[in-house]
Amino acid sequence: MICRKCQTSNPDSSVYCSGCGAPLLRRPKPKRAQIPRLPLLAGAAVILALCGVLYFSLLRPPEPDEAGDVESLNATASSPTPLKADLTSLIVGQAIVFDISDHEVSRWSVTVFDDGWITLPAAALLGGNSIFFQSGDSGEIRLERGIWSAGDPVAMWQVETGSGLNTPDLAAWKPRETLSWRPLGPSTSIIPVDINTRERRGSFAAFPLPEKMRVPGILIQDGRLVGWTFGNGLDRGFIWTDAVDGGLEPRIGVNQLFAALSASREADFSRALAIKGMAPELERLEIFARGFTRPQILAAEDLPSPLRMENAITEMHALAAALTREGRADEVLRVLSPQVLLESSKPLLVQDAVLAMVKSKDHYRGIQYLETIKRDYTAARGQSLGGLDSFHAQLYKDWLRKIIAEGGYFNAMSAFDMARKAFPDDPEIRLLGVEAAMAEEDYGRAQELLQARDYPPLLKNRVSQLENQVKAKQEESEALTIRFNPGEEHIPVYADLNGRYRQKFIFDTGAEMCTIPSSALEYLGIEIDDRTTVKLVSGVGGLGVAYEITLESIAMNGWNVKNVQALIVDVLAYPDCGLMGLNFLNHFRYEIDKQKGILRLRRR
């Protein structure tokens, strides 16, 4: 075994080079079949039979359980293809990526080609710091140099191996020639492939894979290797499109590539996913968010699904929602800054930030924050940020419901006017305006809003309920309701005299005039003298005299009657009480329900 690194000759049994200590790779030796000794003719017949079986077995199509029914999208199975002799035994190994703390980041099945090269998807190196290759019982070989250009989805790495290995040569893919694929696993079944759709990625072309080909494998054309599939969540295959005249020459060191990848969006996503369950939620959210301030260096299609934007957004949403529930909304707002929201352009993250603002401050400030983000996005990108209108309208609805139910520093109708300006055609907002008007006892406005437009059938029941409520409230607003103890014979009421003194009265429909006790005169500032009118009055004790005065006003619950004559009478049964007589009551229609304890007055 000749060491490729220092050209030292080593015994075939050696694992490491005696000259430089580098690991030596060798093809596994095939086991010889034990054939029993037979007479010459019989032995020849057996050998011919075995050759026939082998020949026809290689020509037969693969059984379904070997190759499966491959889905026809961009790679389709057609007629069977016999294996080339130099591809029956590949040197398959593991490429292992470690981080700066020597923790394993990922592991990929690869095969050696061109006598000492392997390929890895660039996404495999995210979050890493070093790469090692291992095959069979040999030791790990540290990879130092390779080929990669910014934007390439695949990187090639040189493996220091012994010379004389039987490995496939790399060749540029030829679109019009037959292309086949075989997995790197135990099965050696070959599947013919037609590539109908592809996208150029630097020195490579990428194409979608059917489900059955999303495992590690190689693409073969005319007995040479032209492409790879990697598995591990990558649903794209990659084919080499450049010439390889003169062989492959390393152009970049491992450290250079890791440095280029480490400051990328994908690297931060990888770091945040790698520490799931080990780091605080806020730290993971910060790392995800930082990714949106870094450049994206790989196409989304060239990434495993966990590293794609959609998965990162889902993870961030779960983290932000959990932190907000825990009362850490201010920290969520700090991390989901306007810059992060602008760079991500994802409505779900905007919603998380706005809900954190609502939790931290209130609905009004949350709505203002959302409207600011939408304006800034339009100004920066020249187009609106879609997917937020329904959320925006719901914020207004939740705000209106909160004000109607709990009140607050904001007037309900003012909030409704803002909501209606933003969403003039939303029927639910208009109905909340009806409720807001009722909460402020503006029943005329409530009726106007109900009649201003037709409502969809789904809201008919709610509209009908509100109409009934408005009608009842309007009737109540035209009536003065006074409650008393059910069954009580003499109904007590209170009224303000001359706007300065509150007097208790007994509701008395048998008294022609109102009376007030003499004790009220002092509070009212009224003096009785020779000029005061005297009238004869009849009572339980017969005829008597009483002074008559004119009150400037009697007001009951805001219902005011001016210039009301009243007698100064001290009623023995009700000391310090007056009688509410007909000269006040005749200004109203009144109903008395003694069983329910309700006195209701309406203006005439």
Please tell me about this protein's structure.
By secondary structure, the protein is of the alpha+beta class. Helices cover 33% and strands 23% of the residues. It has four domains: 65-259, Thrombin, subunit H (Beta Barrel), CATH 2.40.10.10; 281-387; 403-477, Serine Threonine Protein Phosphatase 5, Tetratricopeptide repeat (Alpha Horseshoe); 482-603, Cathepsin D, subunit A, domain 1, CATH 2.40.70.10. The protein contains 17 helices and 25 strands. It starts with 39 loop residues before the first helix and ends with a strand. 31% of the residues are buried. Mean pLDDT is 83; it is low at 25-86.
- The helix count comes to 17
Task: Please tell me how large the radius of gyration is.
Answer: 46 Å
Span of the ends, CA to CA: 119 Å
The CATH superfamily of the largest domain bears the name Trypsin-like serine proteases
- Looking at the overall shape, the CATH architecture of the largest domain is Beta Barrel
At CATH level 3, the topology of the largest domain is Thrombin, subunit H
* Strand adjacency order, main sheet: 9-8-12-13-14-11-10
> Which class best fits the helix and strand makeup?
alpha+beta
- CATH class of the largest domain reads Mainly Beta
Tertiary shape = rod-shaped
User: Helix fraction?
Assistant: 25-40%
Question: What percent strand?
Answer: 15-25%
- Compute the average pLDDT: 83
Number of strands: 25
